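Quick look at the format.
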Amino acid sequence: MKTTDLVGIIIMISALIIFSLSTAPAQTTSIVGTVYEKDQAKTTFNTPEGTIKVYLPDDIRPGDEVTGTVVAQPKGKNEQEKGKNLKKLMNYSLLLPGGVALTSLVIDRSGTLASATPKFTVPKEEPCSISLNSPDNEPYSSVEVPTIPVYIENITDAPSYVLAKKVITNTEPLVILQENTGGAIPTVILNKYYSPTYSGETDEQYILNPSVSSLRKAVYYLPENISGMFNVNIQLQDGFTTRIDLVNIVDVQATIGKGSLTEGERTRLDIEVSGLEGCPYSPVELEISNQSPGVVQLVRGNQQMLPVDHSDDPLGLISGEPYHSTQEVIGVEPGSFMVNTTLHIPPAAYANTVYPYIETSSSPEDYNANIGALRDDIDLFSEMDSSDPGVVSYLGKIRDKLPLVENKNDLQRAKSVTINMLNTLAAMAGGIGFLSTLPSLNKTNPDLARKTAVPQPVHPLHNYAGEFDPETKQLIVNPLCQEDLLDYLGAIKMSNGNYTFTLSDGTNPLVYSDVELKPAILDKDNSTFVAQDINNKNEFQLGEPTSATPIPESKRSKYRFYDHAECKTTREAYEGECYSAMSGERNEKTGELETKPTGQYKKNSYLGSRKCVQGKSICTEIEIIEWIIYIYDDEDCSRLIDIDTIKLFNCPK
């Protein structure tokens, strides 16, 4: 199941000691025709030897230049039969829209028949059809692929590349929305993210080519088991490379302690979610749903929605470590059972924030209600906002063109058309203004409205204003907001060119003198912020090439500054109860987490957290004590033997 905002994991167990864990398959069909999946249109041809599938973008329109992928799946009861049928499938040929022929299908390294299509142009007047010819070059079958009407036009002249989603699972594709790029198809280079001051090569790097592309969209499949936060760099045909954003790629895994249960017997189901470290979007939630309550019961509930922004640590700290949920499973009666897990991400993680509202419509009735609400939001925006006439005009054109559906068979196609109509707004300031104010949609979807109302954390790249290390006395500044940051600090320039300013250490104001300014210049070749010499005036220009050394992670400063941000209390202070300290190790054979008491007891004093969130000014965070952990040698927590503290970045009071 490849979906917009979720990933499905199926856990199946039976009394016959059968256990399997697999990612839910993508939508399939046995008919000949076009089926709309996420960001792709799949056209399937059935032959006696197997199926040939043609994947194209789901947003093609007359006159578009398009690329796609062809995949053949042979029939057969065993590998020998499949091999024979695969060779026969290689003798079929495809006639793509615009008269482009594809006659040289090849076998990739996995043994699957797959081939990228050449770039072709969708006819402006004639139907967009795909034809399959038999090995004798006789017409075998033909399918017409629907196109989006030509009234969907570009409304901005500036070229742009935007990530469709900033948090994805490793079972779904990475999608880049593009406007006015001249049909250039970028290569994506993923580098592990370390800091805003570095996006160059790392020890974990992946190069991706698109599986399908149009003038407005390119779709990339990810390597298996990839997870973490990555810089998304695009490389164009002229070799120019630039960083466009960050993406969190999430991996969901599950293991079961025992594969055979009798009535009343218990075992553990361990679910691990990794890849959310540093995720700048909240809330992220894990839904656990027991699909077979008559066979097994989950002790913590058959339907659960768990926040994964925090770890299972009793402190509840946001963690770079994987999130773990341990579920106790009780057998009720013999049979197989299924537990689904679904990862939900907030609307803020989408470039087109209408996307989750439309995509989560599970029935024609839900979808049509959302279209009605969307039309109301368009009317309200057109009445209230005239600052961008181009956006208002565009919304007026598509308002009555948003498709309604009468049956479920047309639902996915209608979702695709609606989402693609609105994707282009993500590249415009006025369009972003509309996408951020959707009162009618929020009223129709209270759960998504709840997530929309959550203050969003600052983005480590887009909100980066600078950082300061009192030990080195270096103030690293993003040149895009240098003047604003110096004004915010009240910095006074000294005769030697350095600066003096005052900052709080969380308790007292401290004066820092003779501070050296180091601009963080955006490098032209790899689009990375690096420290630069202020005395070299030629290098103090955004986009100029540089050979400076990136700031190593070990030198991160004690102060961080964020632009377009504000400080908010995100968690109130409290005093915890006395609890037994535990240590744990995961059993290599069963995969279960085994814990045991350490003999010590702890009591936590939480001082509260104040974090920089999205706002309108400059915000400071400093590394200060957030937790005090009192350690005792008795269960009443009366004999104190030690104290630990945990420092985290917070806004100083």
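Next, a different chain entirely:
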Amino acid sequence: MTCTSTNTTAPLPHPRASRRARTTLCATLALALFTVAGSVAASTGTSGSSKFSANQAGAVSSGPYQSLVIRGAMIIPGHGGPAYGPADIVIEGATISRIVPLDPVTLERGGDADRPQGDRVIDATGMYVMPGMIDLHTHIRTDPLPLEYVYAMKLAHGVTTMANASDRGFEAAVAEAARSADNEVAAPRMFPLHSWSQFDPEDDDPTSWTDPGRVRRNARELVKAGAHVVSVGNIAWHPELFAAVSRAVYEVGGITTVHLPPSSTAVVQAVQAAEAGVTMIEHHYGYAESALDRKVQDFPANYNFNNEIERFRHAGKVWLEAPRDTLLEDVAQRLADSGVAMIPTMSVYEANRDINRAMSLPWHNKYTHRALIDWSFPNPSFHGSYHWDWTSDDEATWTQMYRLWQELIFQFNRRGGTVGYATDDNYIWAVGGISNVRELQLMQETGMHPLEIIKSATFNSAKILRQDDLGMVRPGFKADLAIVNGNPLHSFRSMYAFGALTLEGDNMVRRGGVRWTLKDGVVFDTQALMANVVSMVAESKRGWTNPVDALFELPQ
């Protein structure tokens, strides 16, 4: 048996070889498993110069093209239907223009046997093409985390659209969204979030934002300013205003999202928010509270919402207070009937189930920027860095909580509810891009079918975002695509940039990775993106000592 990766070859010894030889070489392989996976058999295709429009995103991308052909791919359409193919996908500019089937039955019935040509042809033989993923809640954080790092990690894992918090200011977020739209930066398309609040410093009447009579005017101005996604968690203390804003923002073309803070769930919990008309509910908050026999969680007398370790500890415990049948039947049904979308973001809270695992994941060494490690390491000064005195009881509570949360997601989906897709990453040891793939895996733990999961990450999320030309591989839709060197329906692990192991004959090989990502017909070379990531991470850690290392030293 031989063990190789697509871009490193580390032969494993014969099974009868010595234990030392097997151990040494397998350790070498283990280090290589988290190196970016290469493409198969030089399947990079041929590239011509762009003849369509200028692309200023740099060496990591090219296009759009007057005619681009993705040749010989299997296609996952995105709407929940099964994969089909092989087929050639023809893209003109930013739009998919036609799909030419190449299967024997179609060709026998008179299908087009003449392969389409283009200014560029990408050979995707043996690969799967799916719609680009749409992350409905993520973070770009602040300096010193480079924006280029955040964008590259998303694109390299197949994310073509993101609704990102305006972590560096709303004006800057809108400007970055415009740069992405103009292909001036290698980045997903962006829909910056803004809370329901004053956004114009010159607004002489900030109190109007809590006046139900001024809601429609403010909604129109906020959406016009670039806030397509409006967060309403900050007004969950005011049910009438909450409902009025949810309706008004939708009526003027935007959508609303809510993180229901435990400080306000006694007033508006998840079912009430859904029935008030909010577009989507993020995270896990408010669901268990909807099932309580009383309106208030059993907070201890010394609970302090501003103490994050207490906040997150009891955010898990409330799920164990909720009557199971009420949660998984009545609450699930009312949520589904309301038309709200559920946006779980399971990957960002996974550290609560096993903090040692989260801190020591192997990709942190090569792909996690120093800033993310510094911000995630336990420190009361940083949001989401609350894992000091995090006990085995806390981990057990969150493990049980995840089982209930995932069962609720399954029951909601089974009843016809719309499950969307988001990560809330770049917090709590969740690394952007990598967490996008991990989120798919955690969604599979709910019992959803892989086709349903891809539908949630693409078609459903496009509908939630009210972007009807995104989320499908179909003529007339935007050419936002992920070309995967493997079959994500077989294993979502094939979408990690570093791929996954598989056995081919007598050879153990590492395959996978999103090989190219397309946004508006612009082709991003994911290997070039990840090479930049590796360089940025190495530079960030120059002369730095990882604080996690000391946690695994023997005590003195």
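The mean pLDDT is 90.

See the schema section for token definitions.
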